[in-house]
Amino acid sequence: MKKKRFPGSKLYLALITLITYLPIAVVVVFSFNDSKLPVAWKGFTLHWYQVLLQDHALIEALRNSIVLGVVSCAFAAVIGTLGAIGMARVNYRSKGMMEYLSTVPIMVPEIILGMVFMAFFSLLNLPFGMVTLVIAHTAFCIPYVFTMVKARLVGIDPSLEEAARDLGASPGRTFWDITLPLIMPAVASGCLLSFAMSFDDVVISIFVNGPKLSTLPIKVYTQLKTGVTPEINALCTIILAVVVVVLVVAALLRRRK
Amino acid sequence: MKKKVFAIALAAAAALTMTTAVHAEDNDELVLFTWEAMFPQEVLDAFTEQTGVKVIYSNFDTDETMLEKLAQAEGGDYDVIVADDYIIEQAVQAGLVSEIDRDVVTNFGNINPLYQGQFYDPEDKYTVPYGAGIPLIVYDPTLTDVEIKGYSDLWNPELADSVAITANYRVINGITLLSMGKSMNEEDVSVIEEAGQKLLELAPNIRLIQDDNTQDSLLNGEASAAFLYTSQVTSVLAENPDLEVVYPEEGLGFGIMGAFVPSAAPNAKAAMEFLNYLLEPEVFAQCMDYIGYYNTCSAADDLVNPDLVVPDSVTKGEIIQNVSAEADEAYNKNWTEFKAACGQ
Amino acid sequence: MKKKNRWGLCVAPLYLFTLLFVLGPMIYMVAISFAVDNGDGHGFFWQFTVENYTKMTDPVYLQCFTQSFRLAFSTTLLVMLLGYPFGYFMAKLSERGKKTMMFLIMVPFWTSSLLRLYGWIIILQAKGVMNGVLMKLGILERPLKILYSYPAVLIGMVYALLPFMILAVYSSVEKMDWSLVEAARDLGASPARAFLTVTFKLTLPGLLSGVILTFVPSMGLFFIADILGGNKIVLVGSLIQDQLTRGSNWPFAAALAVILTVLTSLMIFLYRKITHVKDLEGIF
Fold it and tell me: Which DSSP string corresponds to B119-188?
């Protein structure tokens, strides 16, 4: 019996969402602009898409970014989720301190994290490249998963798990059948956030990426520095289109089921 | 079942990391480390065609990031680096630069001697100059009535909230010193502090401080006057030829970018060949036309865009050099105070 | 007798990772903050000094801290005011509506945040989209010079951080037990009272994590201030950036980072105390 108490609520949601999409719309529109500068509309062109398709370095960077995002997101999901669940049940003295420490990577300005990681990794003699990128990204992805799952866990009714246990389910079984489904939305949003953060990170990556590896954001960043070529707008538009298509198809398939 | 999927996903993820991480060391690769968009792709492709060596174009954002990474790699990892003059001096001092092999770089004589014997490489042992620049003032006469002749005109109250400047603290401190009749490389802390006071008076006129795409502000109407790097001047004039370019009467500052081979370059042989290849007149001209900096290779003078051939005035320009730690600290403080004052 | 706690295994990866790759680097950072900067050129040498900390009392640097906190506060407040209702309303949508909204919120994350900032520049600049529309409509006679000002920075910050608040609030409203609200209503509480005493309290954990997810990054998002503010507002983040790159003074940068970390932690700790959410373990 949820009563609709705020008739304006949908309008509010729509308005904020619209504003969110405003700058993106501008980026998309200017990917078709026949001028190097994003100042005035000079006519429609697909030129920037042609330029983009010939840019192997950029496509390679995109591939790296996806691998990096998926891998570090997976690590963060496992470590963060297990950590949050475990933390709710253990009573170590170090617990408070550890929880604080694990969130430090998002409390420290990125540039510091980047610089410290670089110094620390070379102290450990780790080869700079995908490994160092994954470690660094996992470090700042964990807090997103961890905080989300933790916030979710706080409100979960413990009697559900107790009931399962009373009915003879092993702790493992209880976890898979009861706890995990309950926290899954939080794990999912934590993962999505982590992936997004990893997919967008410049400042940390630029310090730990090593000589031969470049990620998409690094490419975008360095290109923006030398001049906003609409090639980047074009790439953004394509990624956006792919994401929208994939998500929509996924949603349709799920509904068919 | 879910567990299994999870485990497989994890294993796959780990495997993926490993395969991407383990990259066979290749002698057919040359890692070129510099800012984005410093070389036209055709030039790099042609080199690969000639020698079979694949060029990996790797970017840094600032000179200092480059030096940090090079220092962490102890002079390894990278084969050819292009960076600014002052940072090369630091790299040389830190022992991170190897000498140019003149037996391979036979085109060394093509370099314009004007850009040789500079402070960062007095004996021309380490670097091949790759473009030079002079920051200049550009303004839009339709937006302001002030006729700008030099740096001091930027202080004119009529330009309130409409000046764009680059974000190099030494250069901006430098032009303030030039407008006071001092050297850009002033070492006397009390004089630097005086310049700091004068800089604070400039704050109300500043619309934005930005290193990248500063020139856009003249085109999109944000600023009526801007202090720009050479490549930016070239680019803004291409978009709007009606803008006025000012060679400030108080004197010019200039900077040189140099290419060098790090001390432990994995593929030093190819690196030297690459430098030699760059110094081919046609290649060099193509590069300069692309980046829009003044040509530093005399042999290419006839081939390059005539606007990029050195004006005589460059010789009178002063180059920014590394100063003592105390002076540098004072410059830094001036800069922070100035930026904070601009935000008020 | 103490039963062996198998949950210890669950936290092991987190413990290991955190100790090795968070605590390790952090200790290193603290160590650097007490080292001496190598005046000429890059690097530093290990010699104990507190000078990096005493240097911060200079008014210029103190000003950076106040400006940063002011901006972080205003940003967090605005994000809270805009994001809480959003997350709340969103959680009350139909299942399909929720999915659509979630989709709409996540998609922008896939475009480069830097590029979205450039989108704002195109919109806000003097000859930009916004001024063009307003002038065509006759609302404005002369273009608004909003770009490279404090409001522009604020817009950028709120824009970048709003989704975090929305997601956090949404996830806590979504899992809320609505029967409690109904019970309160049945007992005669007004809708407003029921909201304040039940809903708000139950969603406080979400709000709290939203505040942390916005306040903390807003201390470090200097590039927004640089790009939309024309580099004129010096935040601690930009100061650190300056010291690392132009100044190449690692020890001072590290000291600034240490102080920033301590201050942010303190703020969050205070926030927790003031809002009385100690029963929910919070973030620490």
Answer: TTSTTS-S-EEEEEE--EEEE-TTT------SGGGGG-GGGTT-EEE---HHHHHHHHHHHTT--TT---
Contact indicator for B12, B18 with CB cutoff of 8 Å = no
pTM: 0.82
Task: Give chain C's residues under pLDDT 70.
Answer: 1-5, 39-42, 247, 272, 274-284
Q: Interface partners of B (3+ CB pairs, < 8 Å)?
A: A, C
Map out the domains of chain C as residue ranges. 47-280
Reduce the DSSP state of residue B31 to 3 states and report it.
Answer: strand
Task: Please report residues of B whose CB lies closer than 8 A to that of A130.
Answer: 17, 20-21
Domain annotation for chain B: domains and CATH numbers? 25-133+255-310 (3.40.190.10), 136-251+323-342 (3.40.190.10)
C55's CB contacts (< 8 A; 6+ apart) are: C61, C252, C255
Q: Looking at the domain that runs over A70-214, which CATH code has it been given?
A: 1.10.3720.10
Residue pair A130/B21 in contact (Cβ under 8 Å)? The answer is yes
- CATH no. of C47-280: 1.10.3720.10
With an 8 Å Cβ cutoff, are C246 and B64 in contact?
Answer: yes
Tokens 């708000």 belong to C200
Question: Going by C-beta distance under 8 Å and a sequence separation of 6 or more, which residues neighbour residue B237?
Answer: B138, B243, B245
Q: Going by DSSP bridges, is the β-strand pair B225-228/B163-165 parallel, antiparallel, or unpaired?
A: parallel
**Residue B312: half-sphere exposure toward Cβ, Cα within 13 Å:** 0
CA atoms of A69 and A77, how far apart (whole Å):
12
Q: Does the pLDDT at position B6 exceed 80?
A: no
Cα B324–chain centre separation:
22
Task: Supply the pLDDT for residue B259.
Answer: 97
- Residue B227 phi/psi, 5-degree rounding, is -105, 115
Question: C25 and chain B: CB distance < 8 Å anywhere?
Answer: no
SS3 B28: coil
Strand intervals (E) in chain C: 36-37, 44-45
pLDDT at A236 over 60: yes
CB B203 within 8 A of CB B344: yes
B20, B35, B216: residue with CB nearest A222 = B35
Residues 92-111 of C with CB under 8 A from A: 92-93, 99, 101-111
Cβ–Cβ under 8 Å, residues B158 and B145: yes
> Domain residues of chain A, as ranges?
70-214
Q: Decide if B64 and C234 are in contact by the 8 Å CB cutoff.
A: no
Which pLDDT does position A94 carry in this prediction? 83
Indicate the residue of C126, C231, C239 with minimum beta-carbon distance to B222. C126
**For residue A210, what are its two tokens?**
């090593």
DSSP state of C110: G
Question: B136-139 and B225-228 as β-strands: parallel, antiparallel, unpaired?
Answer: antiparallel
Residues of A whose CB is below 8 A from B60: 206
C128/B64 Cβ within 8 A: no
- Name every chain C residue with its beta carbon within 8 A of the beta carbon of A149: none
Distance, in Å, from the CA atom of A192 to the CA atom of C281, rounded to the nearest integer, reads: 25
- Residue B26 pLDDT exceeds 70: no
- The CA distance from C31 to C98, in Å, is 48
Q: Which residues pair with A33 in a beta bridge?
A: A44
Instruction: Give the residue among C218, C210, C215 at the shortest CA–CA distance from C171.
Output: C210
Q: Which of residues 238-277 of C touch A (CB under 8 A)?
A: 240-241, 244, 250, 253-254, 257, 260-261, 264-265
CA distance C33 to B289: 45
Q: Which has the closest alpha carbon to C230: C132, C120, C150?
A: C150
DSSP C22: I
**Contact between chains at C164 and A139 (C-beta distance less than 8 A):** no
Distance CA B236, CA B218 (A): 8
CA–CA dist A162, A149 (Å, integer): 20
